[in-house]
Structures are given as structure tokens and as C-alpha cells.
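Reading group handout, session on sequence-to-structure problems. Before we discuss, look at one worked example. The prompt was deliberately terse, the way you'd type it at a terminal:

> structure Polyprenyl synthetase family protein

The input record follows.
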Amino acid sequence: MAANSPSTAATLALIANDMQEVDKVIASRLQSSVPLVGDVARYIISAGGKRLRPALLLLVSGALGYQGAQRFNLAAVVEFIHTATLLHDDVVDESTLRRGRATANESFGNPASVLVGDFLYSRAFQMMVDTGSLRVMQVLADATNVIAEGEVQQLMNTHDASLDEAGYLNVIRSKTAKLFEASARLAAILAGSTAEIEQACADYGQALGTAFQVIDDVLDYDGDAQEMGKNLGDDLREGKVTLPVIIAMQRGTAEQHELLRNVIETGSTDELQRVAAIIRDTGALSATRDAAAAQARLAMDAAAKLPTNSYTEGLLQLAAQLLERRT
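And the output record:
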């Protein structure tokens, strides 16, 4: 989402103090008798990022009036789970750049990244137990399992030019949106909300996470490499078939379709400029942004079911700002 957006900044300002408390929890729970564990974990967590998942949990907690300390603990948990997936993802994808600097696997090696990712997963599960809630543990255990399934499904889909929109959405709802959904749902559980409110929170999280990932896939072809902090065209090199490419293949000429199919199957980035031109010329970027907009509207519809207050307004703003995201 637009990093410089006044409304986004105002939304995050609502939970600035809460995020400081979450940072304290993160710092304390990264302690390990093995120095390399803390070194790698702190390296990737200190890289920054938008911290949207813990922010979402805190905002929904605020919207529902929950002020208990467990919101800090669980916000740190979802950040640890997310960070673990990043460590593993970068190894699987052989990525070298994330958020404008070398990935952990590039700096520390693949074995350290995988094993520290495992540490973060296991530490997150230790912290879940602190809630004393089987429901919380169920939601997070289920979410982590779904995320792992999404990762495996994405691996199976690599270099598959026949992947359609439904298959693409299935992966991102598992791999990305599930942790957004869990973050929002956890806040509702902590607040002791009704089943209807809990579902509205979960619906918001899933739609927001889906929109976020769809826009992220647009930016692989429409962003600035320096601003994005990643290499444009990474998805092609990795054989990932994302919505802009799927739509371009549907709309393009036979020759364009064949070029895209060949690039997907080989993972070659030699034709990156031509691929980007095809995606633009077929209107695939605009169509993909429309798909993200539809998800953002679903998120806003779900947020409208929550109590009316500044936090709920912030949730509405987060969804709206996704439509303007350029970095």
C-alpha cells in the first residue's frame, strides 16, 4: 500500500504505542542460547516491512474494544510465523534481495535460514500456549498448516502455463491471505466476540490479504525495482504464474500466448521487456488491479459490520489504500 499515504499513516498511528509493545515481545522472545539463531532472526525482522499482520490484529482488537496484553503476544506470534515463511520462501525461490537488501539466505546461507525459520515456528507455538486458549491454538495451527499446503501447491504449479485464475487464487488464499485471516480472527476471539463478528473479521482479513497479494503481483511488472526492494521479473525466473500473466495469456494473440508459455515453462527472463509490454498492451495490469479492487471492496463490506470507531475507520482506510499501492 502507498507508504506515504496520509490516511495509512494515520491508521498506523492509532496502534503506534501497541506496536512498540509488540516489538518488546519480539525482542524478548528472540533470545536463544545459540547466537546464530538471534542473529538471523533479528536480521530479517529488522529489515522492516509493513508489519501488516500484527497491525491487523491490533486494529481489530481496538475496533472490538479488547485491551488485554495477549494482543501483544499474539501479534508477535503472527509476525514470527510470517518471518519463518519468508526465511523458507527465499531459500526455495533462491532469492537474493528482499526489502532492498540481501536476503538472510544470501547473507547467512541456506541451512541457517531454514533452521532459524524452524526455530521461529516452534517459538511461535510456545507463545500460543501462553494464551491458555485451545481455540487460539486451533486457529494458528490450522493457519500454519494451510500456509504450508499453499507453499507446496505453489511449488507444484511452478512452470505450469496451464494454471488458471481459480488455481492462482487458491494458492494465494492459502499462502498469503490465511495469516491475514487468522490475525483478524484471533482479535475477535480475544475480544470474546459473537460468531457473526468473528466471521466478519475473518472475511475482512482474507479479502485484505488476497487484495494485497494480487497488487503485489501487479508490481512485479509495474513497479520500480529499487522502490520495491525486489528484482522485477522474479516471478518469471521462479516459474510462478501470477494473475497478470494469466490474463495476458487469455487476451493475447497466438504469438503472444506462445511467448508467454515458453517464458513460464523455461523461467527465462531474457524476454522480460517483451513480456512486460504484452502484459501492459493486453490490459492485464488494469484487469488485475480490478480483481484486487473487488477483494478490497469485500474487505470494506466486512469491516462495515464492526462497531463504528476510529479503529474500524482505520480498517476501512487500509482496504481503500490498497487500490493506490505502488510500492
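Points for discussion. First: The chain is about 75% helix and 0% strand. Second: The mean pLDDT is 90.
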